[in-house]
Fold these 2 entries.
Entry 1:
Amino acid sequence: MKPPHLADRLLKFFCAPGRLEEVQGDLHEEFQYQLRQVGERRARERYWWDVLGFILSFALKRKSIEYSTTHLTNPTMIQNYFKIAWRNLWRKKAFSVINIAGLAVGLATCLLIVLFVQDELSYDRYNANADRIFRMTLQGSIGGKELDIAYAPAPAGPAIQHDYPGVEAFTRLEEQGTFVIKYGNERFKEERVVFTDSSFFTIFSIPLLKGNRLTVLTEPNTVVLTQSTARKYFGTQNPVGKSLTMGTMGLFRVTGVCQDVPSNSHFHYDFFGSYRSLHAREKWMSSGANTYFLLRKDYSIDKLAAQSPQIVRKYLGPEVQEFLGMSYDEYLRKGDRFEFQFQPITDLHLKSDREGELEPNSDEKYVYIFSAIAVFILLLACINFMNLSTAGSANRAKEVGIRKVLGSVQQQLIRQFLAESLLITFLALLVACGLVIAVLPTFNQLATKTFGLDTLLNVRMITYTLAGCLVVGLLAGSYPAFFLSSFKPVSVLKGKLASGVRSGWLRNTLVTIQFVVSIGMIIGTLVVHQQLRFIQNKKVGFDKEQVLILHDTYVLGNKLNAFKAELAKQSQVASVSLAGYLPAGNSNSGFDGVRDVNAPAETSPYRLKTYRIDEQYLPTLGIRLALGRNFSKAFSGDSAAVLVNEATVRQFGWKNPIGQRIATVGDGSPGDRHTYTVVGVIRDFHFESMHQHIAPLIMVYGGDGYQLALRIRTENLPAFLKTVEQKWKAETDNPFSYSFLSERFNRMYESEQRIGELFGIFAGLAVFIACLGLFGLAAFTTLQRTKEIGVRKVLGASVASIVALLSKDFLRLVFVAILIATPIGWYAMKEWLADFAYRIDLEWWVFGLAGLLAVAVALLTVSFQSIKAALVNPVRSLRSE
Amino acid sequence: MKRSYLGEFEEIVLLTVAVMEGGAYGVAITHEISEQTGRAVRLNQVHAALERLEDKGMLKSEMGEPTAERGGRRKRLFTVTAYGRRTLQEIQEVRVSFWARLLNPFKPATSL
């Protein structure tokens, strides 16, 4: 019978070798004794117990008997680590500055991007029930044209809440354009006005400061204001019970005041009118409102989404017959369809880009891109640190040797080097904080955010930052620490360095990575800028220069025509047009179902964009006719005439478009159906952004006084604007506002422009950090080769040949980087460009230019060091040996 | 008088070694103590005490013969050094002198 084997092994591991024999002997003897006394099971138990007792006593004894040693947590030693680290930094100021500057820039960039990403991800999460709020959207196709709409039919909310008990509440948001709002003498133009159901404040967690959450919006013509708007109109007075005049909709009674809508919300309104103030609409196919549902806790959204076909058949089915002239089944057979989908509210900001979004949303893609950039830039800075430390290892090798001879173990040396890197990281963090504070306003402007210092200085952010720095410090420091501490004292002190110090394949790889990232970002910047220039200079099909837009001219009411006539008389004005519909910026927009009357077979109607224009519209905007004629007052029948663009002609497949007849569906009522005759074809122009292909467009005669467009010819713009303003002021006391078509056009690509600018900045930073690293590295290698250079010069080498010698190695790395970065950059930019319907081709010279830039910058950086080294008199470098 | 301090358990172990006259090693000492005093003594405690006493110079040891039940391992046999014996005597003397000065020696408790 043998004692437990495992216990023996354990004992052997812990016991001092000299004492193992007697201890184990005693234990075995005792085991045999116990075996006879109490049986096997108890004996084994006791054996274990005894072994554990021994192990414990060894462990306790070891501490008290062995000579004292330094532990990880020994404060004296930690103090010493940092003292030595500080001395090292101080001794090599230039390299410390390079290190700290690189890291600081990297960290600052990272901090800003983290702020941005965190904010993007936090959208709509302020709602207490964010996980149970869903938006209903409509997908489908009519006549083969895909629909992807952010809103649902207006009656859908109440109907679905009625039909499905799992739906706790619904609310709708519907805009009615801008309003001029009056209270006493205060009069402002307000754009952020919405009409919503009384359940709004139940579903969305926007606290009411005044008024009852359940009843504030139950009556028609009531409105809730945000806190800051209330202050704007009423100052310190209590607004509840007072009445505002809201544009043409009449008096609205204020029933409540709510907090301002948080900035990280997918909508921002100042006025919440009651939904019952709008006239009720019963038709599903001709009404729309952003519709949100709050589900009960135990009800999953999948259940509701699975009901979509039933909902469509029950409610839309009958209307298909009415609007499209065929039964729902027939409609389905033609390959068309309708479907309701439900989006989680937290997905809206980043994952939704449908027609009719309340505000342009952001894109997930940019969150990924910026996170990647943050990681890359930090990586570059870390690489710098690693490179400079290992390159400098030649100088530290002796120190390591002496320390080891004096009894340092590798563990202690590792800790010392880590302490050094932590010190550098935290110094860099201090600098980075300063940088962030300095550039925050600029960054806010670029990213259109409103970060204050408070967003940076909260506990969570600080904890993350410190933890992040710790990780960066340890990561960047780990390689040098293990590398340097592994030197063998004998060979180091003899003056022989480990072969790794000189060749440094790892260092070369790291430099290559740095340049791959830099070149990639240069390519990105070039392509983004090229595409933006392409968009801005592309012939859009209309003349966007010298067009002035006057806003909100509808407030003039029946005086509008007189005002327009008066403007037309000005010598600086070429033409004036009612321009409610415009291809850029604020515009009405309408769709109508359009059918070819003479088509051989009954087809389902196409859903086409519709403009209402007057006869001055085409000349004012500089849109040219391809065929036929413009609208004219001279033809009395022009109210039944229509202009179509070339895309429409292609869509209907007309050989001879003039004289063709089309019919519109309207809102379904017989009075809203019209038949039009095509009198002219206009050249295609971009009435949507360049992301989309030019779609079919029809223009009917009517004109829309929402805004006025003026084609002007004047050198003295300010004087002209003053004249117009005076005339405006003479007619109305509403605020005067205007814009230029070209400005509005450029603003359409604001987000791309921002991306372009940010890319440029980040690319610059990446190149800067990479160059810092290269600069340091070049300095080290030239230092190491001082003697070699001296000997070469003595033997007759020219300055140029020495510079070439020193630069060659680095240039080789840059060339490898170009080879790697080119395909990656090509692929990434191809993906980005795929978003544009009209885009540039990727040309080889972009990559050539990026590579050339990288080579030039690298050469400049390195040559500063190498020329300095090459000019040194060899007497100085060879003097001492 | 200056000498190493001896704990109560150390004293007992030292005494046991002295009593066992050359046959003292870990297991034997442990068994002897638990038989004589009735306490549950553990092997590792005895080993620790033996080691401390050896460090203080009151015990010396040499390796003995291997036996089969020890798996062929040798015993470490302990003997008391002169210093150890003197220490035991001094302890004894100190105690005797204190007992002698006790004016009213303890009587067995009587039940009233």
Entry 2:
Amino acid sequence: MNPLGVAGGVLQAVVIVGGAPLVVGLMRQIRARLEGRAGAGVAQPWRDLRKQLRKQPASPRGTSEIYRSAPVLLVATTLVVAVVAPFVTTASALPAVADLFVVVALLALGTVMIALAGIDTGTAFGGMGASREVTILALVEPTVLVAIFALSVRAGSTNLSAIVGSVLDDPARLVSPASLLAAVALVVVIVAETGRLPVDNPATHLELTMVHEAMVLEYAGPDLALVELGSAMRLSVYLGLLANLFVPWGVATGPGVAALAVGVAAFAVKVTLLAAALALAEVFLAKLRLFRVPELLAGSFLLALLSVTTAYVLV
Amino acid sequence: MLSLWRKIRRTGRVAEPPPSADRPTPLTSELAGSVQIRHVDAGSCNGCEIEIGSAFGPVYDAERYGARLVASPRHADALLVTGAVTRNMAEPLRRTFEAVSAPKVVVAVGDCARDCGAFTGAYGVVGAVHDIVPVDLEVAGCPPRPEAIVEALRTLTGR
């Protein structure tokens, strides 16, 4: 645990907690402008969170501790990833936790807790949303693991900081087939995992088409604020992982205030650009039929598998 | 895809400027800047629904003032109730009101919601919205114009 890692970890947590709702606000604003609307402004998700924190929580009849602890666990697991993963600096506060398998498992744990909470409410939509979310999760997790594993082959380590560091040392490998295939696979699964179009529509009001929203229909007040903050943080974390695994430049490798400042700025710019591109692409996409989603995800898994194969064969 | 992009470029911004520049004082300071709304059709003829739909459409764009329609009363701060309350909808309306966590606001939209309108005394009608749940704000009209609905929503959000 070195001072750079601790300083970077605190900075990353602050940047992601503070910036994640703004990223969601930016994506809604871009969509609103392209639809010809004026939009509520980039800071609207923060206003929503502030308001929800002032409201009374609701504890529906028959729900257990799982329901009450799920929002906290969702935010907590995402926060751990936000602290340890190489976003602002490659020096991790807890190097053992900045491992590919630990990070993916932590993110999956948050999803599973929310799915369990959806079942716990005992409503039809909660169970339906949970079943859909777990279907998607089961197809997404192997792809994330295999795609990042393809990048770890050359680095010789599954530590995310090591992977990012090795790309910085040898940028030429970014244009290798393994890297490009893994990038495409990761983009598809990140879209699926964060509940964006064409897999899930984050703006839907129709219960029958919901995936993520259907599980959290019963949450109110501060619990809902945590769930929404957690979802926003997951989006930023996934976009940040994608950005730093494939375009790691700007990330702080040595100590110094200037290096950390450049790291924060580079991270913010990369995530903002990726979010803007995602919002722009969503305008042209319609939601996929639920039974077509496994085909899309199976395709991305195939790309990830090819990526690992080429990483070993074309060395 | 290219034709859609061209259409977006050609259409530009269709949202009309806000009807009045001054910010209204919000009804409750807790909800300032952000109001999530659950719409309840208590027995409406769907006229008010069409107007609510266009209030949230691109032209009137109620979302720019911080109002947003949500899918669950638990997420909501305000109930937008339309229509005279029919027998079958009286209990669901009561339950929906109970499911909203405090502080909460009820807006009765349209003449039917205010005083049963054309359906006064009809056999299936229990009464107006204020007979079932406490009403904080009323929007007159049959159906009310989208501007009137947007104006009511702005007094909730204070933006």
